[in-house]
Structures are given as C-alpha cells and as structure tokens.
C-alpha cells in the first residue's frame, strides 16, 4: 500500500497538470481566436450566434411567431441584424396580398440572413420591379422538403406567376437527410431544436455542448478534418482592410452527399420536382435559384480546390428539363473585380452580396421577357414566359419598359460561367 500512494499522488498531479494545460489552451484561444484555422472560427461563430425564436409545427417542422421583431447577434457586436415577421411569420411587409406575382422558397439564403429587412435581395427586387408583389417564404435552417411543405400551405393559395426555389447545395444535401430523420422519428417536436439536440428535443447533453462550444475542441476537429480532406482554409485581405475567411473543409462531406447516386441527393431532387409539379398545377412558372458557398466564389481566384456541390444538380436539372439560374458565375465575376460579397467569418452574403443577387435575378427576368424560351447568358434553361392565366399579368413579364424601379446600371450580367 505504501508503494501505491506515491503513484496515486503522481497520477493526480499529472491529471491536474493536464487539466491546467487544457484550460490554459482554451483561455488562450478565446483571447486570441485568430490563432485558430478558418474552419474552427466558423464553427465557433455558429455556436456563438443567438437563436431566433421558433415554434413547433408538426408538418413544417418549425415556424416563426407572427408579427414578431427579433435580433440575431454574436456577442461582441461584430455580427447583428434585426428582422420583422408578417402575420404568417415570414419576412414580408404586412398585410399579404390576395395573390402574389413571385413567391420565393428557401432557407436563410432566401430569408436574407445577416442583413436588415430592406437589404434582403427579395426586398430590393420588389423595389426594382415596380408594382410587383413578392412574398418571401424563406425559413432559416429549413431543408428542401420544408420549402415544398411551406409552398403547399402558404404559396399555392397566392397563385404566383413565378415560383423561385432558392437552393443552397452547400448545406441542403445534409439538411434534407436531417429533416427526413425528424419525420421518421415522429415529427413531434420543434425541428430546429430537435436538430440541434440530435433527437433529444433540444436538450443537449453537457458533453455535446462542450464539444460544440469549446474553442480547443473545435481546433482539434478542424485539424482532423483538414488532415482527412484536400481542402485547406484561406483568408483573403482586401485593400480597405477587410478580410474574408474561407473554410472549404466544412463542406467537404457534402461533396459526397451531392452525388447523384447518394440518397441525400435524391431527397433534394425529389423536393424540387414536387415543388415544380405543384407550381405547374397552378399555371405558375418555376425557376431554381442556385446559391454557391463563398468558397466556391473566391477560392478559384486563388487556384485553390473547393468542394463541388452544384454541378451534379445542374446536370440533373438539364436532364429533367427544370429551369434554373446558377448565381456562381455572376458572383465570381464580381469577386474578380475585388468586391467583397460575404461576411468575414459567416458564410452568408453581406448587403453587397444580396444586392448582387437581386441584380442577377432582375436581369434574368428581363432577358426572359426579351426572348421567351431563349437561354440566358448564365447557362441552362430559361423561363418559358408564356403564362396567360391572368390578364393582369399581360405577357407574363415582370420587367416592362418604362418601369420606374430599375436597378443601377451594374445589374447587367456579363455572361461568364466562371468555370
């Protein structure tokens, strides 16, 4: 027994030393987060953000309170925005019209995450399309199946001329699987909380909370991901002192999920096809709007590889005859000109990025009106602007000569594919 005491004391000392070292490392990273790689900083950013107020919905998964004003921010004040919901819990002016010209479906990219209400791309587009009513049904954290269900409940009744299905393959291929699991689990809780709690109705275990919020653990996770993938983080410095962090390793897994033979790809494609069928049942035009990650936009400028999650969908849409507009070449063209279109750490577009998206969509609609059925400079399939179901829609065009809401001259697209 006497020989064991020194050993026990030594082990206790080693344990205390290790705990102190880990605590010191955690404290150091919190004081100097710039020491962490880009992927780790992005994961910490996600965890630090305040969560929007949501309500459980057994069919949609989650919804926002109606007529609600809320702010999403990160402690420290480097990222914050306020949003206002309408009488149905979406980000639109109230009241809703009896019918809408354009209905937009999607997740945070459609919602306009990161900017104020009047800076979202849907708000800008509505300003420029004089007399056109756009209803934004974007829902933060939603999956493609939710876009479809939201359209069933809210969009169809508005009898839109055009349905814009905003697809962000960067995370939609993963979110589709999670929502499918929620449905199979009984759909009895707030989907957003269920997803964060890994099926435990949002009550994350202490271990899980530690794993997600610890700077040191996120550093180690990023190092592991970097070792297992060919994608390395980069930071771009701009002449005005601004920076842009790129973390392609975060999306590396989704490159595999975005392959046509993967079940997740099938879930997304099925949601798109069903939404298109519903739109066509109501004699509405349908257009998929593909939004790239900021890594897809900027890493080619550095001759760096990035996960490819959009190209497989373009091929599938071409085969299925689904009209689409890929924003990638247009955003890449702006990036080549030195424009900063995204936040430094967060993966969403900033105000300039959303403005560019609005310009590209505006120009696409203009070109579709000028030549019905002709392909646009973006690529792929144009809208068939032949709708005559509503006399008030005229020739089905939203951009008419003499419109007083035209965007600035830089809205013109340059036709580059960015390949």
Q: How would you explain this protein's 3D organization?
A:
This protein has about 425 residues and is of the alpha/beta class. The chain has 15 helices and eleven strands. A five-stranded parallel beta sheet has the order 6-5-7-10-11, with helices on both faces. A hairpin with a 4-residue loop joins β3 and β4. α5 (about 145-155) packs parallel to α11. The protein is globular, with a radius of gyration of 23 Å.
| Mean pLDDT across every amino acid position | 80
> Can you summarize the main beta sheet?
5 strands, parallel
Order of helices and strands: HHEEEEEHHEHEHHHHEEHHEHHEHH
DSSP strand content: 5-15%
Taking all Cα atoms into account, the compactness measure Rg is 23 Å
Blueprint (SSEs and pairs):
Blueprint: H1 4-31, H2 38-48, E1 55-57, E2 61-63, E3 69-74, E4 79-84, E5 102-105, H3 108-111, H4 121-128, E6 134-136, H5 144-155, E7 162-167, H6 169-184, H7 191-196, H8 206-213, H9 215-228, E8 234-237, E9 243-246, H10 252-257, H11 263-281, E10 285-290, H12 294-298, H13 311-320, E11 324-326, H14 328-336, H15 351-370
């Amino acid at each position: 027994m006497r020989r064991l005491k020194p050993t026990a004391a030594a082990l206790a000392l080693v344990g205390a030393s290790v705990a102190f070292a880990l605590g010191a490392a955690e404290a150091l990273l919190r004081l100097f987060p710039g020491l962490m790689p880009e992927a780790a900083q992005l994961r910490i950013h996600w965890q630090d953000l305040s969560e929007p107020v949501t309500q459980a919905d057994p069919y949609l998964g989650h919804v926002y309170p109606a007529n609600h004003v809320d702010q999403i921010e990160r402690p420290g004040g480097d990222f914050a925005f306020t949003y206002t919901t309408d009488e149905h819990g979406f980000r639109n002016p109230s009241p809703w019209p009896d019918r809408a010209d354009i209905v937009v479906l999607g997740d945070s990219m459609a919602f306009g995450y990161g900017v104020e209400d009047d800076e979202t791309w849907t708000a800008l587009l509505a300003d420029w399309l004089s007399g056109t009513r756009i209803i934004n049904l974007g829902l933060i954290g939603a999956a493609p199946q939710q876009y479809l269900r939201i359209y069933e409940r809210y969009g169809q009744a508005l009898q839109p001329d055009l349905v814009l299905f905003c697809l962000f393959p960067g995370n939609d291929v993963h979110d589709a699987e999670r929502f499918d699991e929620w449905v199979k689990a009984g759909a009895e809780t707030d989907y957003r909380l269920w997803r964060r709690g890994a099926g435990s109705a949002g009550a994350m275990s202490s271990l899980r909370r530690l794993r997600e919020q610890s700077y040191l653990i996120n550093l180690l996770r990023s190092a592991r991901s970097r070792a297992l993938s060919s994608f390395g983080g980069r930071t771009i410095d701009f002449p005005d002192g601004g920076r842009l962090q790129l973390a392609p390793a975060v999306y590396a897994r989704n490159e595999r999920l975005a392959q046509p033979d993967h079940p997740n790809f099938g879930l997304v494609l099925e949601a798109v096809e069903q939404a298109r069928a519903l739109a066509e049942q109501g004699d509405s035009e349908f257009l998929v709007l593909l939004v790239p990650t900021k890594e897809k936009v900027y890493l080619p400028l550095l001759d760096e590889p990035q996960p490819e999650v959009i190209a497989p969908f373009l091929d599938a849409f071409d085969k299925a005859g689904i009209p689409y507009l890929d924003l990638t070449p247009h955003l890449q063209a702006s990036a080549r000109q030195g424009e900063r279109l995204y936040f430094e750490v967060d993966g969403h577009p900033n105000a300039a990025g959303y403005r560019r998206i609005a310009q590209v969509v505006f120009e696409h609609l203009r070109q579709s009106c000028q030549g019905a059925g002709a392909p646009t400079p973006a690529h792929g399939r144009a809208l068939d602007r032949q709708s005559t179901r509503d006399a008030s829609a005229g020739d089905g065009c939203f951009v008419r000569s003499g419109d007083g809401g035209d965007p600035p001259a830089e809205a013109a697209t340059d036709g580059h594919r960015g390949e």
